[in-house]
Design a protein that fits this description.
Length: 102
């Protein structure tokens, strides 16, 4: 949320994305209380889904007349002992960080 705040303070239009609808709404609501809602948008997006990312970037770029800055800041964290995590949860953060940056 700190990066979005800095960009909004500087006058940027900010598109918030998250795979988690509730988390996305919470951040959006916090920022909406402080900044102009017309310069903010929220989109549910799985950054590991290449086609969804390409589609979202194209739509946002078309609607706003381009994209000047992309902040690849996605992440997943599970709090548990490693021996208690199933393989899918161990691999998920790697995919998010690896694919989410491209």
């Amino acid at each position: 949320m700190g990066i979005a705040e800095k960009l909004l303070t500087a006058g940027a239009t900010v598109i918030l994305t998250d795979i988690d609808k509730e988390s996305l709404q919470k951040v959006y609501d916090l920022l909406r209380d402080k900044y102009d809602e017309e310069r903010m948008e929220k989109i549910i997006l799985d950054v590991t889904d290449y086609d969804a990312v390409v589609k979202t970037l194209a739509e946002v770029s078309c609607r706003l007349g381009g994209i000047d800055i992309i902040v690849p800041n996605a992440g997943i964290a599970y709090v548990a002992k490693i021996e208690d995590l199933e393989q899918k949860k161990i691999c998920a953060p790697f995919g998010c960080k690896s694919y989410g940056n491209f």
